[in-house]
Specification:
By secondary structure, this protein is an all-alpha fold. The chain is about 75% helix and about 0% strand.
């Protein structure tokens, strides 16, 4: 095995960024599960719980736009460290007495957490573009899939961790333990990350935060509806349904959703093997369209099974596993395509714009998840999910179809 000292400085920096991203992801997943289950236990309605995450998603939209510009001007290491610091502050805000945990206060803490999360994501995803040669598209796809898949697996572990910590130590004890660990990682990161990876040669103007690339714009629109389709039933409706309708306890809800996201992340790492052609060429817009069409069938089948009165244990839960597997392929494809489409100089600008659309989709899905579930139930959430996936498929038809690309040797 290659030693740490034998690695190039650029790869050592990237591995440090990735390690920070992984640590952050654990706390992000745990915090989301803590908030959903804790405030559900306090009697908050699904829509009220969804509102707690409103600023998290809104500020994610803003952060991806501004964060991409900051990353290009200041370097990705600085944006990474800023994200870690903000997450520590966000966690600390939740350590106040229980009487102070009002909706506006929790929304403010979630806003900081949303900013922190997207600074970290943008930093890690943008770094890959700078480490892979232009003509090594298959390698690029593999690296992106591994980073994205491992991140989501760790987020799933975070869901499980959140449920367990809440059961063992209560809300404040769980939050305190995460804040202390992440603070240590932040200090280590401040010492270790020194190279300004990703700083653009030409300082971009603030007016350049919007992408000028047609391919990036089309893919961003597809991404918006893809993630809206997931979160419209996964973020609030599903965990509340499992707790309220199926009477699962906190550990069971957290454990199941954790297993789902871990499996989802594992499938993402396999996406290159599943979607690449036998001749080794990388996927293109046509690949994205085909997989979006396949994904469309899953929420439709789940909704029909629930409408027909089939037990959730025979319809919803197996359907959720199928949805997760196919969605993972779609997400991994998109993650590869954006890194492939992004320009090299100031790569974080295009990546930031794309994840701005991702955050908009999450925002739309989160708000709809609480409102639709409270007003109409889970089946309606699933039908809206199907409509969103259909829109994703139609938009994907406009993505470019590349000439076959192969590795250079």
């Amino acid at each position: 095995m290659m030693s740490w000292s034998a690695l190039t400085p650029e790869i050592r920096q990237y591995l440090l960024v990735t390690g920070n991203y992984w640590a952050f992801t654990l706390t992000d997943g745990a915090l989301r599960m803590l908030v959903v289950l804790h405030f559900h236990g306090l009697g908050y309605s699904p829509l009220q719980i969804a509102m707690l995450f409103l600023f998290y998603e809104i500020f994610g939209v803003v952060t991806n736009l501004v964060g991409g510009w900051l990353g290009a001007r200041l370097g990705l290491n600085r944006t990474m460290n800023l994200g870690l610091a903000l997450q520590v502050v966000a966690l600390s805000m939740l350590l106040v007495p229980a009487a102070w945990l009002t909706v506006p206060w929790v929304m403010a803490a979630q806003a900081l957490s949303g900013i922190a999360k997207d600074l970290n994501k943008m930093s890690a995803k943008s770094s890959i573009k700078l480490l892979v040669p232009k003509d090594a598209q298959s390698t690029l796809y593999l690296w992106v899939a591994r980073l994205t898949g491992s991140k989501n697996a760790l987020k799933g572990i975070g869901f499980f961790l959140g449920g367990i910590l809440l059961s063992l130590y209560g809300f404040q004890g769980a939050v305190l333990s995460m804040a202390l660990v992440l603070a240590l990682i932040w200090v280590s990161s401040m010492i270790s990350l020194k190279k300004d990876l990703g700083k653009a040669r030409n300082k971009p103007k603030f007016t350049e935060i919007f992408s000028k690339s047609r391919s990036v714009n089309i893919l961003s629109a597809a991404r918006l509806f893809l993630f809206g389709a997931r979160d419209v039933w996964f973020v609030v409706a599903l965990p509340v349904y499992l707790a309220a309708t199926l009477a699962w306890d906190h550990s069971a809800v957290g454990g199941f959703l954790a297993a789902w996201v871990i499996g989802y992340g594992f499938v993402q790492t396999l996406a290159p093997r599943i979607t690449q052609r036998k001749n080794g060429t990388a996927p293109d817009g046509a690949t994205a369209f085909r997989w979006a069409c396949l994904l469309l069938s899953t929420p439709v089948l789940i909704a029909l099974s629930l409408e027909a009165g089939l037990s959730a244990y025979w319809g919803l839960l197996p359907g959720l596993l199928l949805f997760g597997a196919v969605f993972a392929i779609n997400s991994s494809l998109h993650s590869y395509l954006i890194v492939s489409y992004a320009g090299e100089d100031g790569v974080s600008l295009d990546v930031g714009f794309y994840y701005m659309a991702n955050a908009m989709g999450r925002l739309l899905g989160t708000v709809l998840s609480g409102w639709l579930f409270q007003s109409y139930g889970l089946v309606t959430c699933l039908w809206v999910s199907a409509v969103f996936i259909g829109i994703t498929a139609v938009i994907s038809l406009a993505l470019p179809v590349h000439e076959p690309l192969s590795e250079s040797h």
